[in-house]
Design goal:
mainly beta, 4-stranded antiparallel β-sheet, 331 residues, 7-stranded antiparallel β-sheet, 1 helix, 2 domains, Glucose Permease (Domain IIA)
């Protein structure tokens, strides 16, 4: 079974190559600049939560509801776990073929994090300040669906709590080695581990998770793309897609075309993954250049919805879509 999962994951990772064309050009010196707050150079994002007004309850059938006013900086409290080098050999964006909550087209188990491919031994950085909750192998301590699932991992409990007040953690899995110890205090940007392919993995990559509440629970994960800050000039698309009765729709394809680019994803599969405590989304596509996109939900043979959405710089652009009566879709 483990061999089958590995082979299927290989196919999913190959799908990620198409995303390379959608990443922005490297900035001078090869490092993506950290966005500033209110245009003040060097200002730090504070860990505050200011939700927008609650959206209306009623949702017109087959009509997207405009997003609530985007939360200032969302809760983009995490930096990327990699800094690109000048040559562009270090990637800092996830593989699109196996996004959070997806099954790679039904070929794999539901994904509880995002995968960022980099060479063996590439240094991994802490995404935010905190204390190392655990560092080491998971052959006797279970953090995944089975022992030795991550091989080696680091888990950090962050100084800031989640928007709803629960403990907030980041998990770095499949690492080849770790450079921190349990109980050690770390700062955002500190080197904590190196990329590997330990545990249930194919090829060297970082598996990054966000967990809220119970750090040991494989069912306490949330979508990292709603926590990791977008590149400057980029934003994040999120939506809540439901059927005619208001129930979440599982495993449906979502496509966005605009700015000379094409992006796609799937609504979350039916399983133990979670929507964000505020957004309540069931699909996320990150790292999209700001601008207006044509939006399509469904497959070519059965388009269930067409519309437009505007991606805002440094924001989550969120809509709700209620689909017409349709056949059941399995995740």
């Amino acid at each position: 079974m483990k061999v089958l999962s590995v082979l299927l994951l290989a196919a999913a990772l190959l799908m990620a190559a198409a995303f390379v064309a959608n990443s922005p050009a490297l900035i001078a010196q090869g490092v993506t600049p950290i966005p500033t707050v209110a245009g003040v150079p060097g200002a730090q994002v504070t860990f505050t939560w200011t939700p927008s007004p609650a959206p209306p309850t009623a949702i017109p059938t087959n009509t997207p509801r405009p997003s609530p006013t985007p939360v200032e900086n969302g809760h983009f409290w995490f930096e990327r776990p990699f800094i690109r080098d000048f040559s562009g050999n270090i990637l800092d964006y996830p593989a699109r073929g196996y996004a959070y909550g997806s099954t790679a087209g039904g070929g794999l188990n539901i994904h509880h994090g995002i995968d960022i491919e980099n060479g063996f031994g590439t240094h991994i950085q802490a995404v935010a300040d905190g204390t190392v909750f655990y560092a080491g192998p998971d052959d006797t301590v279970m953090f995944g669906p089975q022992f030795d699932f991550y091989g080696n991992l680091v888990v950090i409990q962050h100084t800031a709590a989640s928007p709803d007040g629960r403990p907030l953690f980041s998990l770095y899995g499949h690492i080849s080695s770790w450079m921190v110890s349990t109980g050690e205090v770390v700062k955002r940007g500190d080197t904590i581990a190196a990329v590997g392919s330990e545990g249930v993995a194919f090829g060297p990559h970082l598996h990054l998770e966000v967990r809220i509440g119970d750090p040991y629970s494989y069912g306490s994960t949330y979508n990292p793309e709603l926590w990791v800050r977008p590149w400057e000039g980029f934003g994040v698309f999120a939506a809540h897609v439901v059927d005619a009765a208001g129930n979440p729709v599982y495993g449906v394809r979502v496509e966005l075309i605009g700015q000379g680019r094409f992006f796609s994803g799937w609504t979350y599969a039916n399983g133990p993954v979670n929507s964000d405590p505020y957004w309540k989304e069931n699909v996320v596509i990150g790292d999209m250049p700001a601008g207006t996109y044509d939006l399509k939900v469904g497959e070519a043979r059965e388009v269930l919805y067409k519309g437009q959405v505007t991606i805002l710089d440094g924001k989550v652009s969120f809509i709700e879509i209620q689909l017409p009566v349709m056949n059941d879709t399995a995740g």
